[in-house]
Amino acid sequence: MTQIIEKMIKNSLLAAAMIGGTAFGALSAEIRVGMVLEPPHLDPTAGAAAAIDEVVYANVFEGLTRIDQTGAVRPALATAWEISEDGLIYTFTLKDGVTFHDGTSFDADDVVFSFERARADNSTNAQKGIFAPITAVTAVDPSTVEISIAQPQGDFLFNIGRGDAIIVAPETADSNQSSPVGTGPFKFVQWNQGSRVILEKNDAYVGDPVALDKATFVFISDPNAAQNAMLAGELDGFANFPAPESLSIFEADPRYQVLRGSTEGETILSINNAKAPFDDVRVRKAIAHALDRQSIIDGAMFGYGTPIGTHFAPHHPYYVDLLDTHARDIETGKALLAEAGYPEGIKATFKLPPPTYSRRGGQIIAAQLREIGIELELINVEWGQWLEDVFKTKNYDLSIVSHVEPFDIGIYANPDYYFQYDNVIFQAIIEKLNVTTDEADRKTLAQEAQKILAEEAVNGFLFQLAKTGVWKANLEGMWPNSPVEGNDLTAVRWTN
Amino acid sequence: MFGFALKRLFGVAVTLIVAAAIIFFLLDILPGDPARFMLGINATEDAVAALRVELGLDQSAFNRFFGWGAGVIQGDLGISFSQRMPVSQLMSERLQVSLPLALSALTLSTLIGLPMGIVAAQNRGKFGDSFTMTLAQIGIAIPNFWFAMLLVLAFAVTWRIFPPGGFVPWSENPLVAAKSLVLPAIALALPQAAILARVMRTALVDVIQADFIRTAMAKGLTKKQAIWRHGVRNALLPVLTIMGLQFAFLIAGTIIVENVFYLPGLGRLIFSAISARDLIVVRSAILVLVAMVIVVMFLVDLAYAFIDPRIRTGGQSIGN
Predict the structure, then answer these.
(1) What is the ipTM of this complex?
(2) Is the preceding peptide bond at A277 cis, omega within 30 degrees of 0?
(3) Chain A contact present for B25, CB below 8 A
(4) DSSP state, A151?
(5) Does domain B95-308 bear CATH number 3.30.110.40?
(6) Alpha-carbon Rg for chain B in angstroms
């Protein structure tokens, strides 16, 4: 008798679970993922917008290598590679039996075509710098490609694993912007402009098959709408949820899980190092002493974000903790300003691009700098204007931007970059780092570089931009961090 | 009537040409380079330069203006800089949402607003008047995006009767497509209905005091009959003007409501094109909108003339 009752209870529980499951869309191998920004087009070799990679990277397109969720380099279209003694020749062995989504076969010629296209004179690749060191790309045989570079490159395999270096077919390269044809485990189905992109499983995929049959990316720019769409069950997840203030709602609800991770975005108070008075290191140090990173993170980002003391991601193995180089100290800040010849303080402009971290963070930073006597005029700009005024013509004093490229400390070695930081010692270190392949040596050099930036207070180093994903509780395989731009769905599956 | 229409048509053409020039050159002085925007801050100078050539941005403003103008006259609105798709295709996809949405919101607001205004005017000074006008006052005071959010919370998040947003193309599932426009249409219609109700009431109150209504009642019609047979038609002129303006607003000015419901409408297309410096989309889309508004106003003018013979004859019939 008790057995029968037990069985009845079990059955009813099972039935309830099944009803719950269907009502919540759990039984189908479909997923609907929200994104804040819609990609302008779908060809990662012809645009910088992260949203392009967030739809197609690793899902539709593959490169020779790929980056996994820890940031490590993994085989993709190349199953193995060898590097010559001198570090100048990379020989890649290609995966067999691979076809593009349009049925044409993939071989060494496609690799040669893709690399030649990216490094050509009329190339509009947003990361053309990746291909700059390449001197020749040759197809040895249909399944072997040799790439020669001018000097050894420490991060070459990482760079060619990024979305900008994916392999395309000559037949479809020009139409990838509107209907991408790749080799990945998902193929493109349709794009309803302004609304969504639909992908479906590629049955011809060679390699681990994906668990999902269909994936839809839905574009929702309004944070409130994003929250409502999640709560109404219209979406199964949001890889980077735009409303940090409402994450607690999802954390408290057992139907959802919140993944807290990090991006590659170093959020900095950028300083025009070539413009008086900011060309004086004492003024920059004074600014550094005035900053209270935690209250900026709490006030602007609802506590999401990791403080940084230099331009480097805290989750990277080379990171050094330099948070205390110029610890918050108002008196020292004032003294430094006086020493630099500004006992009465400074007036300057502060150009703020649209993201929340900038607009909200800007107000908090302005209040903090006022404590040491720096009065800032806050000027809101949109991205187009920021690119023109701040980035191109360098007509600014201070700004706030999150620099989202992975391992981008090298930008400080370019005196024409918009910070206009010009330090030959630093430039020599980066030059050496670029051609060093030994892991231990690379780490030493990268750490030296980090220390110089912190010591010289080149910019105000604020925090690493967080990535906070909201997903249905019964999903697994999503990336908590984003070591590279993308929403890799290849390992995502429903657990019941 | 024909001469009147011809005169108006000439005005339409001149307005369009002036509008095209203003749209083009005003946007040309906007700071920000589309090529740099697309390639981002790590792009090399030669990649940006190559893209500028590809987009034709290396040519002079006048060349680009005449190139664009010549294309528009032949029905070619150009290719989007960032999306690399014909602007006409981008717009026609967005009009699938914006046009039905604007029409249903306008219909809804007319169905609600006009009867409310008429009832208020009939019962001027009595309870029916103050009650409907209080409702209208509330309708005007409530911001439509806030009302939209309330609708989503109630009908999508809590009861799940309607989707919280998004849009499925008509060809894929017309029922779902229609369903996803219900809440946005209501959110857009109510404030417009409130405005229409007030305009209708004021216009009708004026008309009721006119001599011809008194005459009609003297001939034996009841007040109600006089209002419906003679009053409403004469009160429609200002209402039509407002409806023309409302349609213009509803077709492209609904970006806030589009955002709340993440609808792929025209407003969001133009908004995102402006921030991406996709100037060709902004220019062509705005020009088409200007044309649509001008055509609607032209039709309203014709409707005026139809309703009120004095307009088409330039007032000469008065006293004859």
Answers:
(1) 0.86
(2) yes
(3) no
(4) S
(5) no
(6) 24
